[in-house]
Design brief:
The protein is mainly α. It contains seven helices and two strands; from the N terminus they run ααβααβααα. The N and C termini lie far apart (about 40 Å).
């Protein structure tokens, strides 16, 4: 049953990828960026996590076994979480506008974004991706997906902490105020 539901998680990932690609064409020039090793160290972690999530060839031994009972309800919850998480990513990316980068960077005339999801979260793109991978894992339903979630979350936490160090250095008290008013990966109510 869940295998037939995978189509419904493919669509939001494709929309996300398309939006990300098009939006990446409209960014400001970079004035400062993380080192090569910092960038690609985290990238290796993320690629490993997403490979565990999506690569069916990794269904070996216990990694390929189901971790949940096959129910329509769990599949629907997974689909909804995937759509919700990726929608949050797109909303956040829209608010970042020309200041977005796949790398940890500072752009020309960089501004601290505090609108949209950034009014409650410091890293809504990572939160959205975490929610989406949890939803996707519910639909695919393999132990490898749970391992992938753990690896992906670790990668995003590392990257978010590095971003915060750069933003704190750039914006000082304004970033500290933002930090007090928002949650790291979960909204501060």
């Amino acid at each position: 049953m869940k295998e037939n539901m995978q189509y419904w998680i493919t669509i939001p990932w494709m929309v996300f990828a398309g939006y990300w690609f098009i939006s990446a064409l409209k960014t400001r020039a970079t004035v400062r960026r993380e080192s090569f090793w910092a960038r690609y160290g985290v990238m290796v972690i993320e690629v490993t996590g997403f490979s565990l999530l999506f690569d069916g060839d990794l269904n070996v031994r216990w990694l390929g076994r189901h971790f949940l009972p096959h129910t329509l309800g769990l599949a629907v919850i997974g689909i909804l979480l995937t759509w919700l998480g990726l929608s949050l990513c797109i909303w956040a990316r829209y608010h970042l506008g020309q200041f977005w980068s796949g790398r940890i960077t500072l752009k020309e005339d960089h501004k601290l974004i505090r609108t949209g999801p950034y009014s409650r979260l410091r890293h809504p793109i990572y939160t959205g991706l975490d929610v989406a991978v949890i939803g996707t894992a519910l639909v695919i339903d393999r132990w490898r997906c749970l391992a992938g979630i753990c690896v992906i979350v670790i990668g995003f936490v590392i990257k978010a902490k590095r971003e915060e160090a750069l933003l704190a250095g750039q914006f000082g008290p304004a970033f500290e105020e933002h930090r007090k008013q928002t949650g790291f990966l979960f909204p501060r109510l």
